[in-house]
Amino acid sequence: TRLPRVTFTSPAIGAVGMTEKEIVAAGIRCDCRVLP
């Protein structure tokens, strides 16, 4: 989906596009990060 998603927290969290799982399933190379 191309709809933005947001979780109202502090600090703010937001996302646009496919999840990492959807990208891998589609065979697309991705470089994902998880920030502490």
From TrEMBL:
Instruction: Give the signal peptide, or none.
Output: none
A single Pfam family, by name?
Pyr_redox_dim
Cited Gene3D superfamilies: 3.30.390.30
Could you tell me the superkingdom of the organism this chain comes from? Bacteria
The record's section on SUPFAM superfamilies has:
FAD/NAD-linked reductases, dimerisation (C-terminal) domain
- Taking every annotated instance into account, which residue ranges of this chain make up the domain Pyridine nucleotide-disulphide oxidoreductase dimerisation? 4-33
Q: What is the protein named? A: Mercuric reductase
Read off the lineage from the record: Bacteria, Bacillati, Actinomycetota, Actinomycetes, environmental samples
